[in-house]
């Protein structure tokens, strides 16, 4: 299937489809000015993005919703053209909190449904409205995780027509198998959103997910991520890589565009993010060139199996996913 700027949807296992490139709305470590997310989403839709990746914890879903509704009102797109991914955060894993959390997202967006709703993490935190619950010593407040019970509550949301597809993020093989082998499973995860780029190719997890018809969607496709508390400090800057830049020179592209193209040719959906119009446009311009088989193999040799977004401050959580090999 040839992917183009106009038509780049790929199938999901439940019969729905997803655009292979999305526009990420996670704010940077330094919060962006009010309205910048709205402007970014509007510009992204004008450029050609149809997949918008958001989350409750980004605290900007109201701006995303405004942008989508404005573009629909202009006649630029129809609701069915837009693929919106929302996320269930770990403070809402109690089955009784799942539906209200989704309803809050729908209220902020002012939309009737989301196209994809994913568990943003396999780690549960103290239930409540505090996004990052900590004690008086600034230690995270963990909560016992029952991933299957949370998943059943998500299945009920799909049955109610509030979400079209269900997925997960940062689940390792064991956690995926827990859902896949759940007695009475109605809907399996269509995707697993994880870190994946030329320095961290996730080969084993990718193979496992492909065997089970689970799409890998990558956040951090450039090996660049939010605040220092979440990431490894020993990570080398991917976009300065000599090979990626030399290939970019060959194709008159940037190292970032080469990194994105590498993943979509592996069948991986990518979620670049930027509020800079120039970068938003550049990130989308990946459908007018292809890497050769040899170039793909050479890029794969850059893999170091070193994770950037290691979230070490959560490593004591019983469901911390990164202790496992994959």
Topology:
Layout: E1 9-11, E2 17-19, E3 22-24, H1 36-47, E4 51-53, H2 61-73, E5 83-88, H3 95-109, E6 114-119, H4 147-159, E7 163-169, H5 173-180, E8 191-195, H6 203-211, E9 215-219, H7 242-251, H8 255-265, E10 269-270, H9 277-284, H10 293-300
Parallel strand pairs: 3-4, 4-5, 5-6, 6-7, 7-8, 8-9, 9-10
Antiparallel strand pairs: 1-2
Quick summary:
40% of the residues are buried.
CATH architecture: Alpha-Beta Barrel
Strand order of the largest sheet: 3-4-5-6-7-8-9-10
Radius of gyration: 19 Å
CATH homologous superfamily grouping: NADP-dependent oxidoreductase domain
Q: How does the major sheet shape up?
A: 8 strands, parallel
The string of secondary-structure elements, in order, is EEEHEHEHEHEHEHEHHEHH
Structural class: alpha/beta
Classified by CATH, the class is: Alpha Beta
The N- to C-terminal Cα distance equals 29 Å
- DSSP strand count: 10
Approximately how much helix is present in the residues? 25-40%
Uncertain runs are none
Distinct helical segment count: 10
Beta content: 5-15%
**What is the count of distinct domains?**
1
Shape: globular
Average pLDDT: 95
At the fold tier of CATH, the topology name is TIM Barrel
């Amino acid at each position: 299937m040839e992917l183009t700027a106009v038509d780049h949807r790929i199938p999901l296992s439940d019969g729905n489809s997803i655009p292979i490139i999305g526009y990420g709305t996670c704010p940077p470590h330094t919060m962006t000015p009010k309205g910048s997310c709205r402007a970014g989403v509007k510009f992204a839709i004008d450029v050609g993005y149809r997949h918008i990746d958001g989350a409750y914890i980004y605290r900007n879903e109201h701006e995303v919703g405004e942008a989508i509704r404005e573009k629909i009102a202009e006649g630029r797109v129809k609701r069915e053209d837009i693929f919106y991914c929302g996320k269930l955060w770990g403070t809402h894993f109690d089955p009784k909190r799942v539906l209200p959390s989704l309803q809050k997202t729908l209220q902020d967006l002012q939309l009737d449904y989301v196209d994809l709703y994913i568990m943003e993490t396999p780690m549960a935190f103290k239930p409540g409205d505090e996004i990052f619950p900590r004690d008086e010593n600034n230690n995270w407040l963990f909560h016992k995780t029952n991933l299957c019970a949370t998943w059943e509550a998500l299945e009920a949301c799909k049955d109610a027509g509030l979400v079209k597809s269900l997925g997960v993020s940062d689940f390792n093989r064991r956690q995926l198998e827990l859902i896949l082998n759940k007695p009475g499973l109605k809907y399996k995860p269509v995707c697993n959103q994880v870190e994946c780029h030329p320095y961290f190719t996730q080969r084993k997890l990718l193979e496992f997910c492909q065997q089970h018809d689970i799409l890998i969607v990558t956040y951090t496709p450039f090996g660049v991520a939010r605040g220092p508390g979440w990431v490894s400090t020993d990570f080398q800057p991917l976009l300065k890589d000599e090979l990626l830049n030399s290939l970019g020179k060959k194709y008159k592209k940037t190292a970032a565009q080469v990194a994105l193209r590498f993943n979509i040719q592996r069948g991986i959906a990518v979620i670049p993010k930027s509020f800079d119009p120039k970068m938003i446009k550049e990130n989308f311009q990946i459908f007018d060139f292809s890497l050769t088989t040899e170039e793909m193999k050479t890029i794969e040799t850059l893999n170091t199996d070193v994770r950037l977004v290691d979230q070490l401050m959560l490593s004591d959580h019983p469901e911390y996913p990164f202790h496992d090999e994959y």
